[in-house]
Amino acid sequence: MIQVDLEEERKEILKRYRKLLRLAKPLLKPGDAKVIKKAFNVSNDAHKEMRRKSGEPYIYHPLEVALVCVEEIGLGPTSIVAALLHDVVEDTEWELEDIEREFGVKVAQIIDGLTKISGVFDYGSSQQAENFRKMLLTLSDDVRVILIKIADRLNNMRTLGSMPRHKQLKIASETMYLYAPLAHRLGLYTIKSELEDLYLKYTESDTYTFIVEKINETRLSRNKFIKTFISPIEEELKDQGFDFSIKGRPKSIYSIYNKMKKQNIPFEEVYDLFAIRIILNCDLENEKADCWQVYSVVTDFYRPNPDRLRDWISTPRSNGYESLHTTVMSNTGQWVEVQIRTQRMDDIAERGYAAHWKYKDRDAAMAKPSTGLDDWITQVRTLLESNDGSAIEFMDDFRGNLFHDEVFVFTPKGDLKVMPFGSTALDFAFEIHTEVGAKCIGAKVNQKLVSINHKLKNGDQVEILTSNKQKPTEDWLNVVVTSRAKAKIKDALREEKRSSILDGREIVQRKLKQMKLDFNSETVEQLRAFFETKTANEFYYKVGKGIIESTSIKGFKDFKDDKRQKSKPTLEVVKDESSFTKQLKSLKGPDHDQLLIGEDMDVVDYILAKCCNPIPGDDVFGFVTVNEGIKIHRTSCPNALELLSNHGNRVIKAKWTSQQEIAFLAGLRIVGTDRVGLINDVTKVISNELKVNMRSITVDSDAGIFEGTIKLYVHSTQHLEKLVGNLSKVEGIIKITRFDY
């Protein structure tokens, strides 16, 4: 039992509260401090019996969320009050009506947007997705709901260490799937980077620790390099009379990891580990000219890479980001990214959405979105209004709208349109007008005729060609990437689709009755999974259209009957974690199983997922499927992010114990310089030294470079690592990496 010093805790709570007031002081009007004090007292009293998983008083959490809102996002008194009270309705006796009576309509609306939906959800639905959709419904009215939610999520991620492993995976993946892209979209780059780094810390902790250690090892030499690099620039800018500051900004841990993974390179080969940032204090009217003047000074000393110039001052990004980026070659032969911006631009880059208010009319309504994000807010509103499919379908569309890269294209009259990277001519048509999109048959890009699926590039001038005979088809959804276009195409298809869905539903109902099976959400969800359709409606539609023949539904019954006759027990879909534990306790697998699964770490039956082929020693989690019991996935599986984010209630923890020597299939990719006898040496190491059986080997040699893939059977990750170590010693081998297949 941990001894708690209540007096010390009381002092710590007051200390954090005073810090909050001190930081908020510049933003407060007369009377605001009184309301904040009242909110703090209500929250403190409502949560007084509650503690977090770490053992700390629960009030620390709302205080820290309010602190993030003020210090890191720059929000004002209404947001502070809402942040302090954000869990009160969900976790205590307080109702929304009480909040409205005590703190007003605006605070109540924000807290309503932040309060999770309670109740039982249908099979196959996702509580996380439903809650996110509810939260976004308030976005077009008041963006502070999303900003406070991001602050809440940041605090949850910072305190994730006290949570059990499977909860860590679920929360971290949900963060990476939604909240990090959302923070990016709202221009909160600092928070986005921290969320990504924390995701890596909890999902691939060894990689995270390795990169942190490497960054620390190179810190001294890096600082020395930065000092030498900026010295001549500083001198020249002072001579020219600029008021400025220069700082070296290290690249985030996650972005280094991403670069290593994408380019398949070691840490030492990531050349842009940091960026130099030059921040100017200048008048608004001189901003552009001064930034270009500084660019001229930098490129006088260092040669720029012409392909790496990014001018987001003339054309700001759609989330309001403004800066001038260039990559230059240092005197030591190293590429260095230089970012040039003003203090105003830096504030917006660091604190995103909220920083816009600082540079606008102070009396403007805080809840109104800034112009840089108006279009995006409108797109989200359109998506919310038109989407009557499942919440998971909505999530997919919404995530598609959280794009990172953009292309700048022009109408025939020269109007600029900012589109997501990967946008097609059809996306552009819907961007112009719904009617233009619906009748689009092609386009002229830079006077050349192209098809509707032509991908647009920066600087393209696009003219849309239409025909009154054209109408949207299902295939169009695979052509477009913007959520606006998807929503409009779905609207057009919906009427025709609705009748097919109703027909399909009737056929299924009739067929199940004939087979003496119940027509309920559980059976429908199993049918959906059996026929590999994403949603129940998609399944009905395919039956209604005849794509899935009604006679093939009998195959589902045979499959179910066959499964019942098998002696091995499987897990059915369950609605909550307590039922997991009960079912897990009743299941016992064969003696040689290597996985311990669930809260009590029982030995139960499982299937290894084909998408990532886990082997003993891999970091894994269990996922309860509809028809196949528990499937085991690697935490780094390509599908892990989506499974953990949308179906967290079906995730159970799993870990390997010491196991018997059972062989698992793994893949290695080998790159080296070709020579006579290389293949022979490689196969010798595999078959002779470690008695490993190979399933296949493919080799390709081109201009002296040897590339090969080997699939082989190993016992564990340690076994695989030992093999990789031995293969690395073979003369001519440069790089060996594991791959999923």
Automatic annotation (TrEMBL):
<dbReference type="InterPro" id="IPR045865">
    <property type="entry name" value="ACT-like_dom_sf"/>
</dbReference>
<dbReference type="InterPro" id="IPR033655">
    <property type="entry name" value="TGS_RelA/SpoT"/>
</dbReference>
<comment type="function">
    <text>In eubacteria ppGpp (guanosine 3'-diphosphate 5'-diphosphate) is a mediator of the stringent response that coordinates a variety of cellular activities in response to changes in nutritional abundance.</text>
</comment>
<dbReference type="Pfam" id="PF13291">
    <property type="entry name" value="ACT_4"/>
</dbReference>
<dbReference type="InterPro" id="IPR004095">
    <property type="entry name" value="TGS"/>
</dbReference>
<dbReference type="InterPro" id="IPR012675">
    <property type="entry name" value="Beta-grasp_dom_sf"/>
</dbReference>
<dbReference type="Pfam" id="PF13328">
    <property type="entry name" value="HD_4"/>
</dbReference>
<dbReference type="InterPro" id="IPR003607">
    <property type="entry name" value="HD/PDEase_dom"/>
</dbReference>
<dbReference type="InterPro" id="IPR007685">
    <property type="entry name" value="RelA_SpoT"/>
</dbReference>
<dbReference type="InterPro" id="IPR043519">
    <property type="entry name" value="NT_sf"/>
</dbReference>
<dbReference type="InterPro" id="IPR004811">
    <property type="entry name" value="RelA/Spo_fam"/>
</dbReference>
<dbReference type="InterPro" id="IPR002912">
    <property type="entry name" value="ACT_dom"/>
</dbReference>
<dbReference type="Pfam" id="PF19296">
    <property type="entry name" value="RelA_AH_RIS"/>
</dbReference>
<dbReference type="Pfam" id="PF02824">
    <property type="entry name" value="TGS"/>
</dbReference>
<dbReference type="InterPro" id="IPR045600">
    <property type="entry name" value="RelA/SpoT_AH_RIS"/>
</dbReference>
<dbReference type="Pfam" id="PF04607">
    <property type="entry name" value="RelA_SpoT"/>
</dbReference>
<protein>
    <submittedName>
        <fullName>RelA/SpoT family protein</fullName>
        <ecNumber>2.7.6.5</ecNumber>
    </submittedName>
</protein>
<comment type="similarity">
    <text>Belongs to the relA/spoT family.</text>
</comment>
<keyword id="KW-0808">Transferase</keyword>
<dbReference type="InterPro" id="IPR012676">
    <property type="entry name" value="TGS-like"/>
</dbReference>
<dbReference type="GO" id="GO:0008728">
    <property type="term" value="F:GTP diphosphokinase activity"/>
</dbReference>
<feature type="domain" description="TGS">
    <location>
        <begin position="405"/>
        <end position="466"/>
    </location>
</feature>
